[in-house]
Amino acid sequence: MSDFLNRRWPVFFCCLFYLLPAGAQQSGKPLTLEAALASVEAAHPDLLLALAERDSAMADRDIASSRLDSSLTLEGILRSGSRNSAPGDFAPDNSVRLTARKTLYDFGRSSAAEQAAISELVAREADLVSARDRHRMEVMSRFFDVLIADMQFTADNELMAVTYVGFDQGRENFAAGQISSVQLAELEARYQDVFVKRTASLQRQRITRALLANAMNRPGELAGDLADPKLEGNNRALPEYESLLSILLANNPRLLAQQEMLAASQKRLESLRAEKGPVLDAEIQAADFSRSAVTRDNLSAGLILTWPLYQGSRADARVARELAQYNKLHAGTEKLKMELTQAMLETYLDIQQLKGSGRSAAGKQVDFRDLVLERSRGLYELELKSNLGTSMTDTVEANLRVRRNEYQLALDFARLEAILGRPLDDKTSQAKPANEAPK
User: I want to staple 50 with a disulfide (CB 3.0 to 4.6 A). Which of 128, 168, 264, 308 is the partner?
Assistant: First the structure.
């Protein structure tokens, strides 16, 4: 066995330089999943877009709520005029007016517009929650991708070392006349294929770290070592599927946003239909004139009723357009319900499979590979076989399968919570764990 290890040490030393991707930032402690998720609140472009939409909706709400605000205007006029009794005899007729006006009642158009703006603001706030959920799952997925890339590189690096030793031994055997040139070419071709795969794994390490850095809003700051999380939440009980449907319909942020947008469209329809009604204003005016007249008042107050008797097709066209938007939102809401229930069903079934047969199969594979590895070690020590390196590689691959299963399970739990719009706490999980697939 010492001869086998002596052949492999040069390969290991050559590969140590590549274990850390170029540009990775080394720090005292490995990056944890909790630290990566803490970056979700950072000013990532995806979140900034959602915040901008929310701020725009806030401004629209303020605009709608100010429609009934009082107005105060100052008007100054410089002009000259001629009386009928003295044609051609122009005299100054200047004036200054201070007018205060307040809409007393507009028959619901302002209140409906304000309620529409409030509903749209609630929708944008729900969209912001959805954006945070999506970004959180993005960070988790990118974090797990780095861990998988590192483990895959370890497996491919191990396999490359094994094939290199076989190829190196083959060259010695060929020189001694023990194998043919075809057999040597086969060993070299296998080594080159494994070397290409290992190089691709090395590149994958760099790519996944770059994607994680972007998801954490730290472009260019590639992480070094990552701490493999325990993922204790994967052992949570899974409630019955039927008990989750009502939670989804009541709490899903995307569905809430769509429903609020639908309510906003309905209120805009009410506001537009009220455009055909009258508007009652109160007005107080103080004025001063350079030329007095019996029809002019220095101080006046009154009520003004404005009633649009004819507007052509403008009002009807705006109502028709908003009605089409309402129907579009209504259809979108029903479609979204179907998409969400389907997504929850698929996620639910995936969690069941990963917690059940997925875990079991991956665990049995690890047990089997451990037994094969022990047997290979014994045979190698007896110099009966030399497949120890291959067995070690298979063991690494089996452990990688176990971790893939747990990473996907953690992502599915996070996706299920995002769909439900709330964590799977004790109140959510008060039903007995489901043993059967939903119908």
Answer: 128
